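User: Can you help me understand a structure? I only have the sequence.
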Amino acid sequence: MPRPKVSSTMGAVILDKETEMKASATIEINKPLKEVWAYIADLRTMEKWVDGVSDVKLASQGPLAAGTAFSSKYTYQGKTYDYEYVVTEVAAPFRMSMKSTKGPFPFQGWFELQEAGKGTRCINTIYAGSDSFMTTLIFILMWPLVRMMMRKRITKELVTLKGILEK
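Assistant: Let's start by predicting it. Here is the structure, written out as tokens:
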């Protein structure tokens, strides 16, 4: 795996776009695609399967669509943060994308569903951004470990989602 390309702009260290912190995880759920979609498209269910997310509130009314806004609390390492998000893409029942619009850790995420026999393959991909110079340094110095930790976390979330849906 190549090391991140680094550039310096007025003393700030920036990760090259090609090496943003990205992690992806995949799992197969033994439920039909439309049933899995119905569950994840209800953003309020995130607090049941996304680690650290609670108090999800929809700011937009109506069906899930690009532009749907919502907020949540997010607890990480003992601290709770307020987050706001916007759904950036919906291709029901196959893909949903979102990004944070407020909160200390910027991110973008994509959730994709594919038919897999009688079940559904779920792919969750996250691009994490830096919230500070220190986080940028951690990304640069420890990027393989950070990516591994991100992948482990989203894999755990998918295992939780699978457990809920296969009950």
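Now, to help you interpret it: The chain has one domain: 15-165. DSSP finds three helices and nine strands in the chain. Let me know which part you'd like to focus on.
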